[in-house]
Structures are given as structure tokens and as C-alpha cells.
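Objective 1.3, modelling of assemblies. Example input:
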Amino acid sequence: MLRYLIPLVLFIVLAVFLAIGLTRDPHELKSVLINKPAPAFRVPQLKTPDKTISTEDMRGKVWLLNVWASWCVACREEHPWLIKYAQSGAVPIYGLNYKDRREDALAWLDELGDPYTASAVDLDGRIGIDYGVYGAPETYLIDQGGMIRLKHVGPITPDVWSGKILPVVQELNRQGASR
Amino acid sequence: MNRLRVLSILLICLLASVAIAQVQEEEIPSDDPVIEARLANLSKELRCLQCQNQTLADSPAGLAADLRREIRVQMKAGKSDKEIIAFLTQRYGDFILYKPRVTYTTYLLWFGPFVLLLGGLYLLFHYIKQRRDSITEKPLSADEHRRAEELLASLPGKETT
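Predicted structure (C-alpha cells):
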């Protein structure tokens, strides 16, 4: 009896593994930078190029870094949500304008609205390499101490916001307040 | 007139595709042939993360071009292949390597096939041994001999029916 059960058990184990595999998104890679310091940069701001923006300036606050570009189709999809969440004041959203033309980027913000407190300019994608960006939009959550706590690849949807990002933001703010 | 319309539609499509295409600087190969050879070698072992089934050498994606440029810069600065691989894995993880590293998470991947092979060999030999044992002829005892002869004698000519 047992010898007939063995192939069945093997089959079930294999089927379960394959079924789990099917539910996973092969494009979503685990970032190696989670709980590591956010790579430092100091670059001009998109709207006011005579001013710079740097990771140092963000010390002591929880913030989001959203990698976007005017050529990025999925960025357009998440944009209305970003505007809504920026207005909610839950967490400041900073942009990283990734491999874009300045005039295209400005026109894009003019047309669709600007959710960003400020946008850093990454003309040649070098900052993107430091952050392990492999496809815009990507969003990083960085804590008071400059550590990356979360990375989301792909557009931010209400599910992602309330299920993934907001809980961590609230947790970090709670920890920061009690410190 | 009709042809003109088709042409103009095609032209609009073309322009639209240019408009959404990523800003792409042209890739400038290094003037040092040694660097280019090293890059060609190294980038064959690295995965393009935008189009995951292509190597960094083959991929036309913007990110792949950026990474190739970065590798050129680092090679020019005298970094070894090992240092460059470390630089990339610190940012993109082991996934960027086509050949997975041997770590405790990849033991199954590296050694699983050999374990399966050994297990299969064990089962095969076990089975052969068992089969051989069950089909070896055992000599008949004197008693069995007599009974067999009796049976044969009691059925004369019957074996042909």
C-alpha cells in the first residue's frame, strides 16, 4: 500500500511548490538594501536647479523616495494616488527624476500635478544604480536614521499604500516619538 | 490620397513611440581594447534585471547600457572583476549573477541533483539485488525431486495438449 502512496505524496509536494511559485511575481526582486543605509546623494533639485537636495537633509524624518520619469508609463498610473497621499500628509514624498529630460519632467508635473516635496535629478541613472533601481516606478521608505526600511517596485496602488507602506510609516513614527 | 493617409498615420505612430522612449545616451565603447574584452567577458555572466532572461552583454535595455557604462568606468579606475561584481551584488543582490553563488540557500540547487543521482543509484542497485535474489534457482531437495518425478510420470504425453 505504502509503495503506491509514495508517488502520490511526491506529486502533491511538487504541485504545492509549483502552485506557490505561480503566485509569485518573478519581476519583484528582494532588495538587498533593506535595513541598510540609503545611498547618499547631493544633486540639484528639478524645479530649482540652483538648490540641491541630499539624503543628509532628510535626517530625523521618515520619507519616501519615489523613482519616476516622464517616459515611464506606470508612473502615470500611480501619479493620482501619489498626489492624494502627499496631500494626506502621512509622509513626505520626494521624487527621484530618473534618466529624464528636464523640460519633459517639468511639463509632466505641470500637466499631472506635483506630489513631490522636491525632486532630485538623476540624469544618467547613477543614483539609480546605487539604489538598485531596475524599473521605474520604484519607491523606497527611509527612516529617521537614514535606513531603507521598505522597497516597492511598480506603481503604488491603494492596496500597496494601506497594506504595505502606511503601516510601516506609522510604526516608524511611533518608534521615533518614543525615542 | 489613401496611401498618404496611411503614411501619415504610420508617421504619427512612429513619432509617438519616439516620444515615450526613454532618454538614451549613445553608448560609447572604451578606446581601450583590454577593457572592452574584459567587459565582454564579465557582462556575459551578469543578468540584465530589466529583461531577466538576457545577459548584460546581450540586453538592449537602458539599465543594461547604464551598467555597462558603470563597469567601464570602474575598470578604467583599476577595479578588478571581483570588486565590480561585489559592487553590483551590493546593489542588486545575487540575482544579477547568472551563476548562483554557493550559499546555504543554494545548496539544494547545487547539490540536489547529485543527491537525486545517488538516491536513484541506490534504489536501482537495491532493486537489481532483490530481483536477482528472487530469481536465482534454488536446488530442489530430494523430497521435491521425487514429487516432481512422480508428477511427470503420472502425466504421460499430456504435456503436448
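Residues 14 and 65 of chain A are 40 Å apart (CA to CA).
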